[in-house]
Each structure stands twice: as C-alpha cells, then as structure tokens.
Amino acid sequence: MDSTEATESPRTDRDEQPALTVVVCLLSGEQLAEFVLPRCSTVHDVKMRLRDKEGIPIRKQQLVNGCDILPETVCLAELCSTDFLEVRLVRKEAINFHWQATSMNADRISSPEWCLDSSEAVSSRRCALSLHYYPAGFESKMHKAGHFSIMVQRPKNSILRARVHIAGVMRERLFTSAHGCFEGWINFASREVLPNCETQQLCLEGEEMGSLHGRLEPDVPEEISCPKARLHKASDWSSRRLEVQCFGVVRHASRADTIGATWKGRAWVQSSDFEKHPLDPPLSDSGRAEATDVAERIAKFVESKPGSQIQVVVTSPYLRCVETAAAICSTLGNRTRLMVDLGLGEVYGPEIFGEEPGRIIRSSCEVEEHLKGLSPSSPVPVSTVGVWPNWPETLAMARRRFAERLLVYISRGAKARRNFLLVSHADCVASCLALMPHGRVVESVDYGASMLAWRTPLPALLTSPRTAKRIPEPSCLRRSPSGQRAWWGEDGAESCEAATWHRSDPEELLSLCRTAWQIETSNVTLGHQWCGQDHAINCARAALRNSDASVQEVDHLLGLLSSELLKHSPESPKLRRKDSRLSCMSYETHLFGCSEKSLLEIDSIRESNRPVLHCSIIPSPICEGSHVSWDLRDALGRMPYAMGVPFVEEARVQSHESSAVHLRLTFFPGGHTAAPKNHVSLWVFPLQGLEDRSYVCSVDGSRSQRASGEAVLHFPRIEVFGEITLSICPLSISISKEKAADEE
After folding, report:
1. What are phi and psi of 251, to 5 degrees?
2. Confidence of residue 528 (pLDDT cuts 50, 70, 90)
3. How far from each other are the two terminal CA atoms of the chain, in whole angstroms?
4. Where does the Ubiquitin-like domain start and stop, copy by copy (predicted)?
5. Who is most buried in 79, 90, 318, 739, counting CB within 10 A?
6. Are the C-beta atoms of residues 592 and 413 closer than 8 Å to each other?
7. Angle between helical axes of 426-434 and 551-558 (0-180°, round to 10)
8. Residues 502 and 453 in one domain
9. CA–CA separation, 554 vs 124, rounded Å?
10. What is the pTM for the complete model shown?
C-alpha cells in the first residue's frame, strides 16, 4: 500500500459537498472577506471565520442577505442555488435600505413605503419602525395642506427622536410612549419633484440607533415622481362610496388538537409540527373543509347584498385563525386584503395556558411558508398590527379587549369606507355579539360560527371630517369635554370633533339604532332573553353611540356572558353581573384601509398596554383630606406639548375618613381641540365619592383651580410639565377654608 494512501484521512460527506464562494461586504459595498465553504455550512460558520483587528470572531454583528437578517442556523444552500453568495455585514453605526416604490391600485395609497426592522445589531431591544410617504395632496387631520408628510411609527413602548433630512431641510420630532398612539407625522413644504436620495437619522431612548439611507428606485411610478403627486381618486373621502356597510366576526374552524381530529391523515400531536409549536395548532383535515364552507357562506352573504364588498379580513395571530382567514380571502377574491391583529388573540391567562408560556405563535415567515404549502395561491398577511396582551389576562379582561377591537375597527371602517371581517376565537364572537341589541344570552359558539351585520348607510352617515358641514349643529344641552373619539358616531367617522357634539333629538338616535344594523348568526346558540328588546337597544345605544359613554356600559353588556370560557358544545350559562372596572380604551389615528404596512416579524412581540401617568396616593392629615400626585417626567420625558394627543388616568383614593374617591382624569396638551388656545386642560370626571367633596388642582406649581363634581380646568400653557397634584377634601372643610381666606 502506498504510504500516502495510508496516511490519507477518510473523506466525509461534508467534503463531498460542492463548494460555495462566500463574499462578505459592508453595506457601503466595501469587500471584507472572501472564502470557500461547503454548501452545507451555516451562517454561524461564516461568522466564525470573520475576525476583527484583534483576531476575535465577529459574533455580535449580523449578516444580511437582501433586506433579511440571517439567523445563525440557516444553511447557506437555502440562500442561493448558484455557487456564489454575497452577504453584507450590518454594523452598529448605520443601516442602508432601499426605499421601494411600488405601483398601487385604487385601494391603496399611491406612494412608496419604507420599512426598517432592526435587531440586536442596531439596538439593545427589538424594535420595528415603519416609514410611509404621503405625497402632496393627501388629506388627513394630521397632515398639513400643501405639504408632503412622512408618517413615523415608533417602536412600541419607547422614546424615538426622529431627524429627517430632505433636500437640505431638517425636521426633528420626539415621539414618546405617553401619547396613546404609536405614530405621528413629520411635515415638509410641498416640492415639485420628490428628492432622490435622503437620510433618516434615528435615536432610540436617547441612544443613537443608526441612520436609514434610502433612494427611490429608477422605476418609480409616474404618479409619484411627477410634480404635485396626488392620491388615486378612490382613496379620497369624497369620491369613495360604500353602498352597503357590513362587518362580521367569525370563529376559526376545527383545530387539529381536538380529540379524534387528524392532520395530514394522522394525529397532529404525534407530528414534528406539534413538537415545534405545541400551543399553536393548525386546522384539522376536517377543519380545512369547514373553513371552505365558512368562506362560501360569507361569499353568499356578500352576494346577497348588492353593492357590498369586504375589503379587509383581520385575523388573530394563531395559525388556526390565519388558515380560516386565508380561505375566506381566497373565496372573496384578490381585492380582499389579509391582516394580523395581535389584539384578537386567545385569552392570554391561566384559564387557557395554565402557566405563563414562552413562545406561542409562529413567526410571519413560518406562517407564510405554511400557507404556501397548503396552496401556492393562498394569500398571506400584508401587515401585523395590534398589541399583545399582558400576562395574566382574565376572561373579563380579554372580553373587554375583544369589544374594544371591534369598536375600533367599526369606527375605522366607517371612516375609511371599508368593510371588514374579524376571524378570532369563541369568546371574541360572543363579546362582539353581546354589544349588539339582540337581548339574548350567548350560550355557545361552535367552530366556524359567525356573526354578520349589515345596513344601508344614510348619506349623513358617510360624512368625513373634511365635509363636516353636513353634521347638525352641536346641542347646547350636553357637551362633553372628552378628547376620546366617538366609538360609534352618527357621522360614521372617527374624527376629533365626534366627541364634542351630540344630536339634540334622542328619539332620532333610538330610531337609527333600531333600524341601523341587521344581524344574522350561524352556529351560535342563543339562550333565554334576559331583557326586552327596547332595553337591549338602549344599552347598545349607550355603549356604541354616545361619545361620552363610559366603559362600564360596555362591561355591563359583557357581564351578561357566562363567567366561564365558551365551549363549542352548549352549556348552561352561569350568569352573573360583576362589578365593572373602568379600563382605558385605545384610540388609534391610523386611517384604516388607506395604506398597507410591510409585513413585520412577530417572533417575540409581547407589548404592554399603552402606558399611563404614574399615580401615587399621598395621605395627609384629616383636615386636608387626601391628594393624588402624578409625575409626568417619568412617563413623558421633558418635552414641549404640541402633539395634541390626550391621555387618561384612573385613580382610587382612600382618605383617612374611609371614604373612597374614584375618578378619571383626561389630560389635554396644548394644541388639542378640547384645550383653549395657549392653554392645557384637565378634565376631572368623578365616578364615585366626590358628590360632597371639592378638589383643588395645580399643574407643576401653576395656578390652582377649585371645583366640585365634573369640571374642565384650564391652565396657561407651559412648555414642560412636571407634576399634577389633585387635593381632595370634604366640601365643608373647603368652604371653611375659603371663608377663613376671605376674613384674612
């Protein structure tokens, strides 16, 4: 035997793999390294070959292929089919990104859309920033006429300072988590031609997050690059028509983890998919057939209403709901868009999961891959919105969340003249059905159950904020200072004026409520009638139509549901009316249906509810009562208040006299419609315990005001606020103090 053959090491399968040339470059295009690896190598192998100046492997940097950050476990063979692969190294200093401009049809805004999804290479926390360009001519209450705007969606629960440079003009704005919404506009003067190369400098929580460089691609549509670019006429309020207004709430079809169910011909719990995602089962084999039946049922419903169409299907992030929603979109046609709303997910508490779980849902890439595996033509979600609930969530909290999302989508859909369909879970269907004036108890919701509602909108119901002249004059009998938008205003729009006016004829409201919506249900078991039809209509009118309706009225309707989780088999309901707790409703300014966001990763998104002011109860001597103090600096940062976004706080104070005071405070910053010019306002709404008490309010040491009952207190505008203090004392003590002051 030859000596060389004797010493030759045995060849492995890895050596027999064809070679792949890997080139690593910076985002600027500068080449860093080039080496040859087997095709079976992973991204981790590439990163281990990279060394810094000290010879240490570059592990904390990220490799990017196109616009996707590559996980370390991805095999190189999956990234390309040729023998050459070029990847880019993302450094912490900057991120380069091409702004893609795509042609839009009549349903979408005719403008480019930019999206940055950053990870550890950019920031110490995961964030997603979406930038939308609105050309001159776009009409919005947050957009200046004759200007073009950039809408910034900041990372959730963070402070973002955005500096935008366009053609030598720099605009800077601070976005904080206390605004109650996650988006805002940066306005620029109108320009004849859209600039070709710009820079976005982004700071996250006071630390430099990076820069976003972009340029419009050469194949920019003519309607974007031409002077005075405008939207398609179908996107304008005045030209968009909605002959039949309808919406629906659907429960997903049968899931694969039920007893006796099969998935791909065998038990799902014995598959590898169960090992990866045990808490996110897909539809069973029979469930996919049920989803097709549900889609055909909804399609027949739409066909039976001439002039109706469902433009948007919004689904829970769980796969069984996404599969059901995709089947519905496929049946309704290509013009129906699919969205994912994290706020429509299952009850996130011990009643469902027992202990707090880790990862539950699948990533957007896994969802898209699963849908394409079922059918190559299957639609995929175009955006992910909403907020993941906090652990532990009770059943009552989840039902309030479901009701809130329905009210938000009804308002958005009416404003944007878009019909929608929600695909969620059993308790979501029951919660939404409880808000409608049917007067019956919801006992059970089967798989594939649905609630479909429709009406023919009156001309007055399609009034936009720009055509508010058709709205009757405000009533002088009742005026609410609340900045909260109407949940269900008669103008059919979620406008800033909707909370400050009321129609003077209550009978007209009642008549509209009786004749407005017609409802049909399928696979929903309704029990006995808990009240008369008139009483149900009054409750629904109070909860859905009055702009100053309290959340207690919604909770009252939800309290009529069973106190246990609704099953797909009928059960006797255990009715009880629990004490309602006020919960802040979120009001978002995004115009539903006017634009579409890029698909965002939902790997580990678990966002908390929108923050409120930090409240601390400070006891005082008996003669002084008690007072509540809010420190704005911790929640808002030191910033000028010109954004015009109100926020709400609740407080329950127990004084030394053992008398509880429960009140709600809404703070209106300068520039809001509820605050006079050059003033800020505080609306105090006593809920309990202030009938015989007065209170004195001071804002950061500014002028104090005394009031009792419900009141709106105005203060001269101060650029930076520090603390709001509300001193509460019995009315008799307050009067004696006032007399003593007069005597002095």
Report:
1. -90, 145
2. low
3. 119
4. 20-93
5. 318
6. yes
7. 120
8. yes
9. 40
10. 0.42
